[in-house]
Design brief:
globular, single chain
Length: about 50
């Protein structure tokens, strides 16, 4: 489920700037991966798998 939401925010939605601003405003640690390739590389390095 979380990968579907990440994909939706990262790829499918046209309002990425709004989400990026919202994440910045909550004050929690975050990571900005600018491309789907960057997301795939992050997954690979951290041993994550998409469902």
């Amino acid at each position: 489920m979380k990968w579907k939401m990440i994909r939706h925010i990262a790829v499918a939605t046209s309002d990425r700037a709004r989400y990026r601003e919202m994440v910045g405003d909550i004050g929690l640690p975050s990571l900005h991966l600018a491309t789907t390739g960057a997301l795939a590389a992050f997954d690979h390095v951290n041993g994550s798998r998409r469902q």
